[in-house]
Amino acid sequence: MENDRYKQLLVAIEKERLAEEIYYSNIAKQKSDKEKIEAGILLASLVLNKKYYTVGEYVEVQLEKTKNFDKPNKFKVGAGVHLIHQGEETQHFRGTLSHKRKKEIGVIIQFDVISRDMLPDSGTYKLELVYDERPYKVMKSAVAEVIQSKDPYIVDLREGIRKKGKLDYSSQENPDQWKIPQYLNTDQTQAISGILKAGQMGIIHGPPGTGKTTTLAALTKTILQTENKILVCAPSNNAVDLLAQKISELGINVVRIGNVTRINEKVVALTLDEKARNHPDWSYIKEIRIEAEAARKMATTRKRKFGTNERRNRTDMYKESRELKKWARDMQKKLLSSIIGNCQVVATTLVGVSHSYMEGIKFETVIIDEASQCMEPECWNAILKAKRVIFAGDHHQLPPTVKSKEARELGLAHTLLDRMTDSIKHHYLLKTQYRMNDAILKFSNNKFYDGLLESALPNKNHTLKEDTAPIVFIDTSGCGYDENFDPKTRSLYNEGEYFILREHVLQNIEKYSNIEIGIICPYAEQVRYIRGKVLDDKELLSLNIEINSIDGFQGQEKDLIIITLTRSNEMGIIGFLSDYRRLNVAMTRAKKKLVIIGDGATLSSNELYLDLINHVEKEGLLQSAWEYMM
After folding, report:
1. Alpha-carbon distance 383 to 386, whole Å?
2. pLDDT tens column, 265-306
3. Which of 250, 359, 428, 596 could form a disulfide with 191 if both were Cys (CB 3.0 to 4.6 A apart)?
4. φ/ψ of residue 424, rounded to 5
């Protein structure tokens, strides 16, 4: 029942938590190290490069890969991991992934109390993904607080969302006082002007390439004209980093709480850790810690003679070490509180809002970016910190990943952005896109955005050099290129489609040199298959190619996108390709050229793909795969 929607959310969270726990439990029991590596949940043959103390007195280690540099894996910054040392004795440490590079990976040991010297310098290490219960605890706690809250702001939002109300309470601010940045286009300016009047909830609908991040940064700068501090959140570390950097570039004092993913000094400089290290008081805290460690070592020094005086001295040294450590902790706490207190924007993930550093801090406004990928309970964790919420995203793109079918049926994958966009008063669409050739935009625009989007002049007709077909569909019907099922990964791949893809690229290799190319595969096994083939192909390796899933490409753009749809069978079954949001995300990654490879006979069983093929035949270039087989 809708009246019980918040209690239903609690049940859904538990269903998803259980599904996640069972998933990791089954992997741990049934799979060898080799199988875990293939599944992308284990990194082996790692060597220790560095180990050091970070803010909070945690030990952070920097590990180097010695093989499998290009092998895909499921490790993401912020994920829970087991660090396993393989020496004379096997040692286990529980931590969190702090950063990830091609050959390097970082782990903060946050769950085990250890000193730096407990981690051996020699030998090899393994890193395994583990079940992490913390996000589920955070979400349950947030929803429970929403249910019990008497705060009038939260009660109004809670009931407004329950009833899909207009939430049309307006801000008491005078609109004439705002100075909105002049570099924005008309849609962006109107969106900010409208959002500023929203007293409870506002939504900025930002389709692909419409400058959503630029708009949010400008909105933040404008709101800070009357508010002292704003909370900015997103579901992923990567999205938080991008927005934090954009806001910081406007001269705003941003503190980034949590782990960063972007390999960029500008983002690292925004972190609470880095700001603390660069503060004059940090050197004093460091000196006190060194003194505390020296006192501890003196207390543990072995002595041949150990009498009453020696026992008293050891007790005194232990006491001095404890007191010095406490002094250092107190100084650090004051320093961190000061840094957060003096900033204008706090940027963190939705789960990161529960960090101890955020305790007791309240905001007037919280901005939640990439709201189409946020589960509702995550959002509430941030909303509870503020009086009004501003969502930004595109509900015609991918929803949050929810493993449990029961949790999906209970509404966990149904976002607040999707629920409230057509209900609330303060909802604004960004209409001008700066990414795609207009021919690439046209299908998504008419099919998903009611034809409301427009292409900016600089990109409206831009193409690859000497190219006349911005959108191409290569039809493999009748070629015998059936899909294959891999029983180990339980995923699909299509060797024939890769053959056509390769032939197409080689026939256009001069045109495709010196551009960014993205190959998008909806199925994980197709990603693995093509990556393996490209690594063994000198001609393709000479090109700037990235191969990933639809999810992996969300938020990115490339000059050329090639989509290999994979499905080809006599029954006309297309599985999750029928979700229009997947097709929308894949197609709108392309800037200058889009090539789609698929079996028209199989795909045409679905009206969406039938319309796509008809559209390309009318507006672009429809080819038969036979043209590449002669």
Report:
1. 6
2. 778 899 998 899 889 988 888 888 778 777 777 766 655 555
3. 428
4. -80, 160
